[in-house]
Amino acid sequence: MRSIAALLLIIILGSIELISQEEPGTVYLIGDSTMADYSGEYDPGKNYMKTRYPLMGWGQVFQQFMVSDSLPKISGLIKTDSVIVDNRARGGRSTRTFFQEGRWRSVFGSLKEDDIVVMQFGHNDASENKTKRYVDIKGYKEFLRLFVSQARQKGAQPIILTPVARNYPWEDENLKNVHGEYDQAAKDIAEEMDVLLIDLNKRSMDHFSRKGKEYVSSNYFMNLPAGKYEAYPEGQDDNTHFQPAGAKAVAQLVFDGMKELALKD
Questions:
Q1: Domain over 22-264 is classified CATH 3.40.50.720
Q2: Residue 158: which residues within 8 A CB-CB, separation 6 or more?
Q3: Per the count of CB atoms within 10 A, which of 42, 46, 86, 145 is most buried?
Q4: Which of 33, 94, 204, 217 is catalytic?
Q5: What's the predicted TM-score (pTM) here?
C-alpha cells in the first residue's frame, strides 16, 4: 500500500505536468462573408440547416486543417502543439466597417504572443454602390496597415490574403481577376510592411480554372436549383459565396499557402 508521502508526490507531479502543458495557440480569421462561419452564433437562435445551409465560408472548415497531424507541416508559423481557430469574419464587412464596429478591437484585446491573424478583405471595400461598406484604395491600405501594426504590437503574426476569386469573369475557359486594384493593394502593403502574403486571388482563380466553369458553378458556388434546400426553396444564383465543397477547396488553398510560407520562414 502506498504511503501518504508517495501519494502526495504523485499528486504534485501530476499537477506540475498539467501546469506545464502548452496553452493552445490561436489563429484569428478576420474578413468578410466568404470567410465567415454561418453555423453556431452567426444567427443566434436559428437552425443553420434550415436557414442557411449549404452556405459555408471557408473559415467555417478551417479548424480541420489545424489538427495534430497537419500542424507539423506549418511548424515554421505555429509555435504551439495545438491551435484553436477563432473565426471573427462577418458578412458585408469591409476593412473600415470591421474596425468601426469594434470587431478589430475585440480581436486586438484577445491577442497574445505568437498568435496568427489571417486577414482577407476587399470584396466589400470595392462596393462603390454600397456607401456604408465602400473604402477606396487609400483607405483599404490604411486599415490593413493598422491591423498589421497592432497585431505586431501584441507579438502576433499577421498574414495578408488577397481576396478570394468570384466566379466571374471567365475568358477562354480561364477565370480572371474581378477585384481590380484591391488585389494589388494587398500585395503592396505586404511588401511595404514585410508581411507574410498568400495570394488567394491567384490561387483560387487558377484552381477554379482547372476545375472548369461548369464544375465550380454547380459544386463550389451557391448556384442552387429550386426545391433542393430548405433554406432556398426557390433556388439561388450566387457566384460569390460557397457551398461546402467550395469552402473546403478554398480552405485547402489557404493551408497550402501557409505551408509554403512555413518553408520560407
A1: no
A2: 116, 117, 119, 147, 148, 151, 152, 195, 196
A3: 42
A4: 33
A5: 0.90
